[in-house]
Amino acid sequence: MNTHNKTYHPYASPFDPCKPITVKTYSTPPHLYMGFQPPNLPQFSPMEALRAGTLWKDFYDPYYNSYEKSKGGLPS
């Protein structure tokens, strides 16, 4: 199973004067996990598509940085 949020552990130098960040996260978009666009995908209405940034519901990915709470649904 693929997850859209990935983590990695960057190198932390023993000579770095700052406290190291041991784990970093990033988000990958849903279209990376589809080999091709299947026919007859469900679509947003035109106004919802403008807010979501995509016409197809399967390609919608609400991005939230690590300081925001994940909320479901479309952006307002």
Would you kindly provide a brief summary of this structure?
The protein has 76 residues and is low in regular secondary structure. 9% of the residues lie in helices and 11% in strands. It has one helix spanning 46-52; strands spanning 5-8, 24-27.
Describe the structure.
The structure is a single chain. The chain is low in regular secondary structure. The chain has one domain. Helix content is 9%, strand content 11%. Strands 1-2 form a two-stranded antiparallel ribbon.
Shape: elongated
Overall radius of gyration: 17 Å
Largest sheet: 2 strands, antiparallel
Number of helices: 1
Number of strands: 2
Number of domains: 1
Structural class: little secondary structure
Q: What is the share of helical residues?
A: under 10%
Unreliable segments of 5+ consecutive residues: none
Q: Terminal Cα separation, in Å?
A: 30 Å
Q: Mean pLDDT, nearest integer?
A: 82
Strand order of the largest sheet: 1-2
Q: Which helices and strands appear, and what pairs or packs with what?
A:
Layout: E1 5-8, E2 24-27, H1 46-52
Antiparallel strand pairs: 1-2
Characteristic terms for this protein:
little secondary structure, Spore coat associated protein CotJA, Spore_coat_CotJA, 2 strands, 1 helix
